[in-house]
Amino acid sequence: MTVPRRVPCKGIQRQPGGIRYVSTGLDKMTIEQLIENTEKDFMSRNLATPRLDAEVLLASFLKKDRTWLYTHPGQDVSAREMDGFSFWVARRQKGEPVAYIIGRKEFWSLDFAVDPRVLIPRPDTEVLVEEVIKVLGSGRASRPEILDLGTGSGAIAVALAHECPHARITATDISRKALAVSAGNAERHGVASRITFLEGNLLDPVMGKFDVIVSNPPYIDSGDYARLSAEVRNFEPREALLAGEQGMDFYSAIIPQAACRLKPGGWLLLEIGDSQKENLNRLFQQSDAYQDLAFRKDYAGRWRVVKAKIREEESG
Ligand SMILES: C[S@@+](CC[C@H](N)C(=O)[O-])C[C@H]1O[C@@H](n2cnc3c(N)ncnc32)[C@H](O)[C@@H]1O
């Protein structure tokens, strides 16, 4: 593949807010030039992944995929398109996450609609989905009842509904706005008829018992929250992340409550932060309602999941 020549880009003017692509009617740039200019600008603002951001934004703006960008580096982008794209660039310059700008995030190889009403699903959470599928084992083929607490975008609930075609899923969230997004994602993936969305505090709105209770609850302590990147703090919902001074508030509530809502042989699975393993271990030992406690790391080598099975005498 030939590398396109770098030519001075007459179409760009620097303005106080950042790059502004000017539509003069004469100006145009190639795909490659526009990516390089945007990447340089993002780099100068210390954004962590400038090239990737530039490519993902441009591909989405042009309603193409990134492969198309690589195979059409010399294609012109019109002044009108550059003008529209400049508004997306300006949002990224202010630190807004790419997923909110393009309105999408891939999770479990599925495309989820996301906006500031919900936390952007993280790839780390996929190991939680993997562990749920493991504990369901051959039960996947039957009709497992699964509860997802704090469903947010619906990433976990929709991924599980997609993976387990006979599962019935209940998904809760305290945020009505988040539930509007998750319900939309269930529709989008054709699993809405198998997921019941309920608004309320943790297990409060839920009836009945479940084979699996899964949750990626808020688990950031107040100190760590202050140290999160501005990109997260300024744009993602605080109530999706913060969990009191020690980051343990939700685990302390979920572990005992879930014990009363698991069927015999049922499992509780929770996403955790890397430094929370010992605290979680202590909480489960204190509860005495569970057995077969196990922890799992994510693919970056950080502790990410805890799972435990209900004791027979607890669930009877
Ligand atoms: C870390 S986010 C997880 C979102 C999604 N499950 C995921 O993995 O991407 C936590 C979610 O819990 C919800 N939440 C916070 N407090 C809650 C509560 N008391 N009861 C139910 N949901 C709650 C938040 O609104 C948010 O959607």
From TrEMBL:
Any coiled-coil ranges, and where?
none
Q: Does the keyword S-adenosyl-L-methionine apply?
A: yes
Q: Does the keyword S-adenosyl-L-methionine apply?
A: yes
Q: Where is the Methyltransferase small domain?
A: 142-222
InterPro entries, alphabetized: DNA_methylase_N6_adenine_CS (IPR002052), HemK-like (IPR004556), N5-glutamine_MTase (IPR050320), PrmC_N (IPR040758), RF_methyltr_PrmC (IPR019874), SAM-dependent_MTases_sf (IPR029063), Small_mtfrase_dom (IPR007848)
One GO MF term on file is:
peptide chain release factor N(5)-glutamine methyltransferase activity
Q: Which residues bind S-adenosyl-L-methionine?
A: G150, T151, G152, S153, G154, D173, N216
Binding residues for substrate, per the UniProt record? N216, P217, P218, Y219
GO biological process: one example: methylation
- Explain the purpose of this protein: Methylates the class 1 translation termination release factors RF1/PrfA and RF2/PrfB on the glutamine residue of the universally conserved GGQ motif.
Instruction: Name the UniProt key words of this record, in alphabetical order.
Output: Methyltransferase, S-adenosyl-L-methionine, Transferase
Gene3D superfamilies attached here? DNA helicase RuvA subunit, C-terminal domain, Vaccinia Virus protein VP39
Q: What is its EC number?
A: 2.1.1.297
Q: Which family does it belong to?
A: Belongs to the protein N5-glutamine methyltransferase family. PrmC subfamily.
Q: Which residues form the Release factor glutamine methyltransferase N-terminal domain?
A: 33-103
Q: What is this protein called?
A: Release factor glutamine methyltransferase
What is the top EC class of this enzyme, as a single word?
A: transferase
Reaction catalyzed = L-glutaminyl-[peptide chain release factor] + S-adenosyl-L-methionine = N(5)-methyl-L-glutaminyl-[peptide chain release factor] + S-adenosyl-L-homocysteine + H(+)
